[in-house]
Amino acid sequence: xxxxxxxxxxxxxxxxxxxxxxxxxxxxxxxxxxxxxxxxxxxxxxxxxxxxxxxxxxxxxxxxxxxxxxxxxxxxxxxxxxxxxxxxxxxxxxxxxxxxxxxxxxxxxxxxxxxxxxxxxxxxxxxxxxxxxxxxxxxxxxxxxxxxxxxxxxxxxxxxxxxxxxxxxxxxxxxxxxxxxxxxxxxxxxxxxxxxxxxxxxxxxxxxxxxxxxxxxxxxxxxxxxxxxxxxxxxxxxxxxxxxxxxxxxxxxxxxxxxxxxxxxxxxxxxxxxxxxxxxxxxxxxxxxxxxxx
Length: 294
Hints:
Elements: H1 3-16, H2 19-26, H3 30-44, E1 49-50, E2 57-58, H4 60-88, E3 91-96, H5 101-113, E4 118-123, H6 125-133, E5 139-144, E6 151-159, E7 187-189, H7 196-209, E8 216-218, H8 222-230, E9 235-238, H9 240-246, E10 249-252, E11 258-266, H10 269-275, H11 279-286
Parallel strand pairs: 3-4, 3-5, 7-8, 7-9
Antiparallel strand pairs: 1-2, 5-11, 6-9, 6-10, 6-11
Helix pairs in contact: 1-2, 1-3, 1-4, 2-3, 5-11
């Protein structure tokens, strides 16, 4: 038996003194109100209304239990109100600090269609992990190796001027003989790519190719890295989508395939279920070419 529904019908009818008016106030047909009250009477073991009169007149038993029924209805209403408010409470999500505002806005709008309100916390990878660990956010787009990822983003290098070849080989950056005093072109890593599964592979390739240690460097920010590239022959490690946004010319790297990997990490498993329908919108924020599944 629906105890709350039966108590709601009982309270509504008793307050209005009529099964017809009480049922209408409760938003149910009169026949449904009658069945619910009859079920409640059977459940409680006595009559709530005197059926000998045309009006809905309470029996002594009905008068005694009515206050408790009214309290139950009020508590149920308060529970539903609190649940609605809780669903509207923003779900804090740590995202890469380079995600395009337009795509984040579209993600936010789509989330609202799924009754989820997002509160974004843009941050680099290490900070996103700390925010989740300390529960300052309930979910984060964590930087992970490709084999652990829900979304993957191929990386290449971007330059201020269009490279002559469709693929850039980093061995072409190796300084020639007699270039000891000259500044060799650098490959700049933005903070997002200062993670072992990207940085260490690029450093290993640098050493294999005989490049100078300074030719692979981590920038303080995406802005500073881009500024260095715009004013020199340096290259920026980035995705193709980022290169378009920065008005740079992107090419894949010939010697190695580098990939950004992202996984949805949550404090509570229910949050992962709530965010799963947003996988495509998240992929667009990350510049992932596919439509990843969270």
